[in-house]
Amino acid sequence: MIPPTSYLYVPGDRPDRLAKAFNRGAGAIIADLEDAVTEDNKDQALETVSNWLDSLPGTPAPVWVRVNTGPRREHELRTLAGHRHLTGFFLPKADTPADVTGVHDLLHALGHPTSLAPMIESATALVNIHQIAAAPGVFQLHIGEMDLAADLGLSPGSEETELLYARSLLVIASRHAGLVQPAAPVSAEITNHDAFRASTHHLKRLGFTGRDCIHPAQVTITSDVFTPTPDEIHWASSVLAAATENHGAYRDAAGNMVDEAILRRARSITATRQL
Q1: pTM reported for the whole predicted model
Q2: 242: buried, middle or exposed (CB in 10 Å: 19+, 13-18, 0-12)?
Q3: CATH number among 3.20.20.60, 3.60.21.10, 3.30.9.10, 3.30.70.360, domain 6-226
Q4: How far is residue 48 from each of residues 52, 87, 100, measured CA to CA in Å?
Q5: What is the pLDDT along the chain (275 residues), one digit of tens a residue?
């Protein structure tokens, strides 16, 4: 399965925003019960999201729900599991594989197994990332960099090099576990579009295939960055066609070797185009 190029967080206690969620152009929606909702509104948010899911006649994009940690999590899972339009659950602060396995086992016991997206947000999670990625039910890893930076005592600068190790580890662990490539982290930058675009291009070069967003303007930029350009599509199509004619690896007109690694990149571009 190819992951969406953009995920848009929508506060679970805002029925007005949930009603407009599919009009924002996002590849997937995350109804948020955690950080976007104050403690006093969490019960209301759960009811609102449940009613919203019930009211949907269909979904033009996958719908995920980010549940809370602690005692609230099981109640939220039991309430929402089985909704026919629900793609899966985001699991914040997934520090150990047991945090994921416990959810997977509960959903199976309820008869509603579904996809899971653990969020890497602490030093403990980074140490356990390979086991978390290999846990049952995991579709894709996501990273919560604000919580991670706070846990590690980091103060990222404009280049965000302080986060490079964690970001690369997420990409490596995902590949090692056979998962789809991870989604890049959210950014608090919602007014400086040039800075957000540059950051998104950088994350794409690191191996991310999409990005989590907190504002519709970010969705537009993210989708643009991760959608292949006409030149990229033309290159990929030409490479794959030539490989078919040459029955595999070949030398192009410039004398460069086009081998399986290049062909894999071309296939990835054509697959992304189909989203």
Answers
A1: 0.88
A2: middle
A3: 3.20.20.60
A4: 6, 17, 25
A5: 678 999 999 999 999 999 999 999 999 999 999 999 999 999 999 999 999 999 999 889 999 999 999 999 999 999 999 999 999 999 999 999 999 999 999 999 999 999 999 999 999 999 999 999 999 999 999 999 999 999 999 999 988 999 999 999 999 999 999 999 999 999 999 999 999 999 999 999 999 999 999 999 999 999 999 987 677 777 777 878 888 888 788 888 788 888 888 877 777 777 765 44
